[in-house]
Amino acid sequence: MLKDKIFDNYKESADFILDKIKIKPEIAIILGTGLTTLLDEIEDKVEISYSDVPNFLISTTTDNPGKFIFGKLKGKYVICMTKRFHYYEGYDFNELATPVYVLKLLGVKTLILTNASGAVNYNFHPGDICLITDHLNFAGVTPTRGNNLKEFGERFYPIDKLYDKGLRDLAKKSAIDLGFELKEGVYFFTVGPFFESPSEIRAIRLLGGDLVGMSTITETLTAGHCGIKVLAMSVATNYSSDRIENMDGSEVEDVARKVSPRLKSLIIKIVEELGE
Ligand code: HPA
After folding, report:
1. Does residue 240 line the site of ligand 1, with CB under 6 A?
2. Is 118 close to ligand 1, i.e. is its CB under 6 Å away?
3. What is the pLDDT of residues 2-35, one digit of tens each?
4. Running DSSP on this structure, what letter comes out for residue 101?
5. Cβ(116) to ligand 1 under 6 A?
6. pLDDT tens for residues 78-127?
7. What is the 213 CA–ligand 1 centroid distance (Å)?
8. CATH number, domain 2-273, options 2.170.190.11, 3.40.630.90, 3.30.365.10, 3.40.50.1580
């Protein structure tokens, strides 16, 4: 049986963070693999290690335990998470709801997600930045399984507008202003930690998946439950396993790092224009 979600535990986590940052941020940014250069641009930083936050998830890697970084970006208060949590690390999907519920209690209204993914669509290539328009989740897992907390949302909730159209339009316009175009596509969630078999990729393509990856939907589905708008952007870091041989993930971080400056300028522009 799943452990129950306990509202007061999320509240205690959020209150601990609020006590340190004092101001409620309306924008949160969760940074994917190799995509942390944005942090250099944040002013008046307050850093809070995940491991200090009561009831927060305990990192499975000691080399990078992860932290919240709060501060100002283009004059707006943002809170960033330097590391996300994945199902393949051993967390229950139920536990994976924690970060976004805590962000909700901090006052976050817009969540910007970035990730690295495999390019399934033949028109997508390593280095492309893609807007996620929707997702496919056939893994049989959901962060909102288990007891429903009314304080966050209803038991049953729609997910047809998870990836906010207004934010996607803003991202597209911001990219054009910066001189490039975004690809747009559907993200297919896999639990990992292995990369997909070529047959799985062919099935994913047939089903309508353009990108494949092991993150993001946990956060998006939780955000959808508690009424946070999501903008999700994916860096295609590699061709899917039917387009290259020996896909072992070695290029994922390198490619993400190379694209990071471009994604960083895009996020800065989006944040600058948000709500104006
Ligand atoms: N598959 C799954 N997850 C990924 C990939 C991939 O090809 N690339 C980066 N994350």
Report:
1. yes
2. yes
3. 789 999 999 999 999 999 999 999 999 999 877 7
4. H
5. yes
6. 999 999 999 999 998 889 999 999 999 999 999 999 999 999 999 999 99
7. 5
8. 3.40.50.1580
